Amino acid sequence: MNVVLPPRVVAGDRVRLVSPASYPSEEELAESVRALESWGLVVEVGEHALDRHGYLAGRDSDRLADLDDAYRDPGVRAVIATRGGAGAYRIAGIHGFLAGARSAASTRSLLMETEPAVLRRDQEALTAAVQVGGVATGTLVGGHLGTVAWSVGAGLPDLDGAILFMEAPRAVGLGHVDRQLTQLVRSGSLRGLRGVALGRFPGFEDYVDREWTVLDVLRDRLEPLGVPVLGGIDVGHGDHPLSIALGPMAELDADAGTLTVGPAVR
């Protein structure tokens, strides 16, 4: 797969904050603006970034208009979502956050530097206990498990030759994770998959259902795929996660415990 990389962001560039999904608070938006301005960037905010329509940041047409305006402006060098969540049923270019110094630094590196990123297995992380040995190379895709599963038949990219990254906070129970993984398996979406990287699954740390934990579910669904699986990547929901680029080529080495992701920019 030929991956088209945008130019890296440099001080003085204009960037646009938009809300394609749920809405931020004024405080959250202000924090994002401060973080980006501290990098020397000129920050603009979409017209409808603080709109509210139920749990969404305004009506679909208004959210789309903000995105279109940002993409059409040749002077805007990066389009940054104020929040993820409901209404953003697509896979983003960088999966991460601006809130918190650690997360902001990780996102800044992906946007403004052109070196590959190496993410290492965190032995203290819940999913670090899930591992299938081996090495795989492929385009890194994925994100929130539910969003990936719900995209089957509605825009999920071809995973043939890809490495799939997945993370998810606990919403209900183990069955929720099981159903989403089973949907991906039975739909045929995982044919040709090269490897799996697992991020955070917060809320499942002490959750047991009839003697099974989320680790049992992940092993039960992923081990039969016969591809390398690397758990313990510190990306996803929760406090102060790292950020990850989705779209570049990556190498997953489950034995060494590393996920090396090519640069998100050039």
Describe the structure.
This protein has 266 residues and is α/β, with parallel strands linked by helices. The chain has two domains: 14-88, Rossmann fold, CATH 3.40.50; 117-261, LD-carboxypeptidase A C-terminal domain-like (Glucose Oxidase, domain 1), CATH 3.50.30.60. It has six helices and 13 strands. The strands form three sheets. An eight-stranded mixed β-sheet has the order 5-13-12-7-8-9-10-6. It has a three-stranded parallel β-sheet with strand order 2-1-3, sandwiched between helices. Helix 5 (174-186) runs parallel beside helix 6. The mean pLDDT is 94.
CATH architecture of the largest domain: 3-Layer(bba) Sandwich
Average pLDDT reading: 94
Strand neighbour order, sheet with most strands: 5-13-12-7-8-9-10-6
Strand content: 15-25%
The portion of residues assigned to helices is 10-25%
CATH fold-level name of the largest domain = Glucose Oxidase, domain 1
Structural class: alpha/beta
**Morphology call:** globular
Distance between the termini: 17 Å
Q: Can you identify the CATH class of the largest domain?
A: Alpha Beta
* Tally of strands: 13
Number of domains: 2
Radius of gyration, Cα only, in angstroms?
18 Å
Number of discrete helical segments: 6
CATH homologous superfamily identity of the largest domain: LD-carboxypeptidase A C-terminal domain-like
